[in-house]
Specification:
201 residues; mainly alpha; 46% helix
Length: 201
């Protein structure tokens, strides 16, 4: 992670909320995302594991409000909002998440004696590396490939949730949806006057 501080110090995309940069639909969508908390879909143990997985996949900078990406993943599962595609080796996303979290926790118990959210940071990292490399071995995975679940559900859904929230936008100077104002200066090293100014590379 970058230890030199934020690239866009003092920038807060929510300052654009009541400006011509955002329309009413954008305001409603973002306001709703910011009020989400969980769990609504996941059980308490699944929720604790999901939160720990989020902390590993998208570690967050200290000293600022956390991005509640676990709540957005939970909301997606609660509404069963699908991507429109899935690998044939995975079941539907709800079943994949239920089975995936159960298998992760079983794998952790077999190797380390506790559920994923009960492990040390080093143990969690090693377990995720096993999933990424396809070396998970617990029978709890059944016919669902751990490597495919890791890449196509776990990382995909958590990263998408993280970058759907304003606190993550602040990190990269993103101004939010381009409606109704839009973006005009789209060439390299060009910026519209209402965009954030980067302080360092």
């Amino acid at each position: 992670m970058n230890n030199r501080g934020p690239r866009y110090p003092g920038y807060n995309v929510l300052d654009k909320r009541d400006t011509p940069s955002w329309n009413e639909i954008t305001r409603k969508v973002i306001d709703h995302r910011l009020t989400l908390d969980g769990p609504k879909f996941f059980t308490l143990e699944e929720w604790l594991t999901l939160r720990a997985l989020c902390d590993c996949i998208v570690p967050q900078r200290s000293g600022r409000a956390p991005v509640q990406c676990a709540a957005l993943v939970d909301h997606k599962m609660e509404l069963d909002q699908r991507d429109g595609f899935r690998p044939p080796s995975l079941p539907s996303q709800r079943e994949a998440w239920r089975r995936g979290i159960a298998a992760i926790n079983e794998e952790c118990r077999e190797r380390y004696g506790g559920a994923f959210h009960e492990l040390t940071g080093g143990q969690q990292d090693r377990l995720l590396r096993l999933l990424e490399e396809g070396e998970a071995s617990s029978p709890a995975w059944g016919d669902m490939p751990a490597k495919v679940f890791f890449k196509r559900r776990l990382v995909h859904d958590i990263a998408a949730a993280y970058y759907a929230l304003p606190h993550a936008w602040n990190e990269m100077g993103f101004g939010g949806p381009a409606s109704p104002r839009g973006y005009v200066r789209l060439d390299f090293n060009k910026r519209d006057r209402w965009e954030a100014i980067e302080q360092h590379d």
